[in-house]
């Protein structure tokens, strides 16, 4: 079975075809900024109406349009009542038609993307590209899923209850990993962290009967999920101290990554990661334990894990002038991911360990407390100085105490003499923040500054995500 024509897609999602229904879209795309020639443009009605951008999509080479009313164009069109519903059905039907032997799901408040990368490498599987982990991005990626796969690893994110449940309806799972139940998006859950746990636990609900899901044995909320009646149809696989699967003999190699042994019923499995940080050992142990539990060869699992390198914004490590370094962890931020990345920073060689930190988002009434606790925890870890910016910068500073400075926005931390230019040469620098604050701008400024003059970029850690 090759890629679907509009005729084949229409047989799955319904609707009416205008024009040449034999056209074979190479992919689906909802965003004209990233649309590649040959894609079918999907006009989604959201804050902005995607139909208004169909002209731009055609200029960029769209081969077809998925719309909810006919447009004045010679381009082939599939017309449906609801483009979002059609998009989701297209992805769901494609997965059902070419379903791999094993479909894995990954969720958690921290480390979803890095664990997805690790598990996909461990099982030699297809993986959802980039950050396509929501009810739009996941079906968009699945719509052109290749056939003949042995494994597919799907990242599943959420910010409100019910989102992961919907994702598992689109993509029923055979196995999964829940990396951690943290505080990300907690403002959307009246029950607080229990609400987050219930929402993350929707991945377990979505497992086929007899499926297996791995989690850290030390996470009390994952243990809580494992004990719920709605999780009893699946087997929980705790990984960590006192369990059949765990990690031991951890050796940090600085920028060269981590070495450790995976403890397993079949004996110890030596693993060398290119990703620095103990948090990456935990992520890799989860991926390896689940793969081996499902029958994958331990040696091949270890080899696959060793090939993973970080993506931009998720731990890209830059070596700077004066034996310093910069860890780009700018994709997103939560309390847990900030501390995990700071711990990894402290394992790297260099001068002072400092952090440039944008504020976090979606913490609701807990925002002031969590920002103060984050600042205090960074100081307790051994971070020497903190540059904070955003609407909760003062809370970061209050928690951190002496050595922290706060600014209202990026422009202020960039331009003030006490801002980024005051970071000492030779420092080990972690840059992180929520997507809203676009902390990648701080990375770009630092890398372009003559003060730091980067020498090269090497593999680094990757952990954030929610």
Which structural category fits the helices and strands? alpha/beta
**How is the largest sheet built, in terms of strand order?**
19-18-17-20-16-15-21
Which percent range describes the beta-strand content?
15-25%
Q: What name is given to the CATH topology of the largest domain?
A: UDP-N-acetylmuramoyl-L-alanine:D-glutamate ligase
Uncertain runs are 459-466
Mean pLDDT: 92
Task: Give a short summary of the structure.
The protein is of the alpha/beta class and 466 residues long.
Topology:
Blueprint: H1 6-13, E1 16-18, E2 28-29, E3 40-42, H2 54-59, E4 64-67, E5 77-79, H3 83-97, E6 102-107, H4 112-123, E7 126-127, H5 137-142, E8 151-155, H6 163-170, E9 173-178, H7 193-200, H8 202-205, E10 207-216, H9 220-226, E11 235-239, E12 246-252, E13 258-263, E14 269-273, H10 278-293, H11 298-305, E15 316-319, E16 325-329, H12 335-346, E17 353-358, H13 367-381, E18 385-389, H14 393-400, E19 404-407, H15 410-415, E20 428-432, H16 440-448, E21 456-458
Parallel strand pairs: 2-3, 3-4, 4-5, 6-8, 6-9, 7-8, 9-10, 10-11, 16-20, 17-18, 17-20, 18-19
Antiparallel strand pairs: 1-5, 12-13, 13-14, 15-16, 15-21
Helix pairs in contact: 4-10, 4-11, 7-9, 10-11, 12-13, 13-14
